[in-house]
Design brief:
There is one protein chain. By secondary structure, the protein is an alpha+beta fold. It has three domains: about 260 residues, D-Maltodextrin-Binding Protein, domain 2 (3-Layer(aba) Sandwich); about 80 residues, D-Maltodextrin-Binding Protein, domain 2 (3-Layer(aba) Sandwich), CATH 3.40.190.10; about 110 residues, Beta-Lactamase (2-Layer Sandwich), CATH 3.30.450.410. It is about 40% helix and about 20% strand. It is built from 19 helices and 19 strands. The strands form five sheets. The chain has a five-stranded mixed sheet, sandwiched between helices. It comes from Gordonia pseudamarae. InterPro entries: SsuA/THI5 (IPR015168). This is ABC transporter substrate-binding protein. Keywords: Signal.
């Protein structure tokens, strides 16, 4: 869908984007990065610890030391010494600023920031960047969401017309807001008032009532809802447009040190394998490294959540191309960007081959490798990942699968009856495929079966096709479910 006519107000947004992107890069003391200086090479990695769909190139990668291990292997071959400097940021904008300034060599960020990165960096051959891999993606767009205060009367995105919305302008969360408003006929610039704020500032503004809603990327919406400070209003999966986070590197650095770049990508593959093998353990490590609650990390990074396939799939590249008109319409592009030129999968192909994996298979994979598996002992049947739920009891080192939301309710009641405390319970929206907290979901009862949805909009859409489905609260559903 083409952007609506809102260029007349674009200059306010341009100023906001410029202010974000021109911010100083704290902690960068190296005058140059990636220069040999004899036999020593320093690699500066910019990451976002709380943007947990970049964990395989950031928080988890750092916690498990995979990059350093791969550089040690490289050192044994080249005789050179390598050191890694990790720099943590709240959004992708300062990482882009650092890369253009020559202070950051490798970074990770969401789709809109990646495009802005490529656009800004392409102004000069010496600052040009290239996108190398995917860290996390959602085929429908569930990585970005809009939340409102818990007691807000708003029930749908259309209720935000003329309201104050906090967003990090030019971020992935802002991008979803722009497209979602455009789709329902609200001018994303003139139809609402967007306050350009860092995620944590926006979270405080929402809590204090200074803004009516907050549009952000993971993990902020889930965190605020988990903390009972917000309610989910809009699930980005309603767009049906893939969203992604990925790795970007300075082209000059990559040309000078291709072996270092490949070592980073191999390390990303190591972290990905570690996460897939033990998602709960990985969530604990990410929680320790980010300060986020493990329950929130596991909601996004657990089975049926984010797809951590690193392949640069054609569908994801097509989504990036589809994002360009929206970025142009709000003035976020200083220069046009040739995405086919910006995306470079050769280093990843080599890294995957060196790791003994099949890149072509990863390219065509249609399902998330990380799924809920096992047998539901209470309902006595094997789990079907498309409708599966999951229960995490306090004190348990492992979670337990539930065949569907109805079985999850039974498991929660049984756990309570036996004196156990539920740490977290997760459902998957049957319409949108989004993983979400069971106790924060919108529930419907249809006969003896129960269904859970991320938003009132999603539940209403289901209810319109199933007139027998009636609203029920989570606690009421636990009491009503058949024994």
């Amino acid at each position: 869908m083409a952007p609506t006519k809102f260029r007349h107000a674009r200059f306010a947004v341009v100023a906001a984007v410029s202010a974000v992107l021109s911010g100083t890069v704290a902690g960068c003391s190296l005058e140059s990065t990636g220069d040999d200086g004899g036999d020593a090479i320093t690699v500066v990695v910019g990451y976002q610890s709380k943007t947990i769909n970049t964990v395989t190139a950031g928080t988890l990668l750092r916690a498990e030391g995979h990059f350093e291990k791969r550089l040690d292997e490289l050192s044994s071959k080249t005789g050179k010494r390598y050191t890694v400097t990790w720099q943590d940021y709240d959004t992708g904008a300062p990482i882009t600023t650092g890369m253009i300034a020559g202070k950051i060599d490798i970074g990770s960020m969401g789709d809109y920031p990646l495009l802005i990165n490529g656009s800004r960096a392409s102004a000069n051959d010496s600052t040009r960047t290239e996108m190398l891999s995917i860290t996390g993606s959602s085929p429908r767009g569930a990585l970005n969401m809009v939340v409102v205060p818990k007691d807000s009367s708003f029930t749908t995105l259309a209720d935000l017309r003329g309201k104050q919305i906090s967003a990090s302008v030019g971020s992935a969360g802002h991008g979803t807001l722009v497209q979602a408003l455009d789709r329902i006929g609200i001018d994303p610039v003139a139809g609402v008032s967007v306050t350009n704020q860092q995620p944590q500032v926006g979270a405080s503004a929402l809590e204090s009532g200074k803004v009516d809603a907050l549009a952000q990327f993971v993990a902020w919406p889930g965190l605020l809802v988990f903390q009972n400070k917000a309610r989910l209003l809009y699930d980005g999966a309603e767009l049906g447009v893939p969203t992604l986070h990925g790795v970007v590197a300075g082209s000059r650095f990559a040309a000078r040190h291709p072996d270092v770049v490949e070592s980073f990508l191999r390390a990303q593959l190591d972290a990905t394998q570690s996460l897939v093998a033990d998602p709960l353990g990985a969530a604990q490590k990410v929680a320790d490294g980010s300060g986020l609650p493990p329950e929130v990390v596991y909601m996004y990074n657990g089975p049926a959540g984010t797809d951590f396939n690193p392949a640069l799939k054609p569908s994801l590249i097509a989504a990036l191309k589809g994002d360009k008109p929206y970025l142009k319409s709000i003035g976020s592009f200083e220069r046009d960007l040739d995405i086919d030129e910006f995306v470079n999968d050769e280093p990843l192909r080599r890294a995957v081959a060196d790791s003994g994996q099949d890149y072509e298979a990863a390219l065509v994979a249609r399902t998330n490798e990380l799924t809920i598996k096992g047998r539901d002992s209470l309902c006595n049947r094997e789990v079907n990942s498309s409708s599966a739920a999951e229960l995490w009891l306090a004190g348990d080192a492992r979670t337990q699968p539930a065949a569907d939301p109805t079985c999850l309710l039974k498991a929660v009641r049984a756990a309570r009856d036996n004196g156990h405390t539920v740490r977290a319970a997760y459902i998957v929206d049957p319409r949108l495929g989004t993983r979400w907290f069971a106790d924060k979901a919108v529930w419907l009862r249809e006969g003896d079966r129960f269904f859970a949805f991320t938003t009132a909009d999603s539940a209403a859409a289901y209810g319109s096709e199933h007139p027998g489905a009636v609203p029920v609260t989570y606690e009421a559903a636990i009491g009503q479910v058949a024994r």
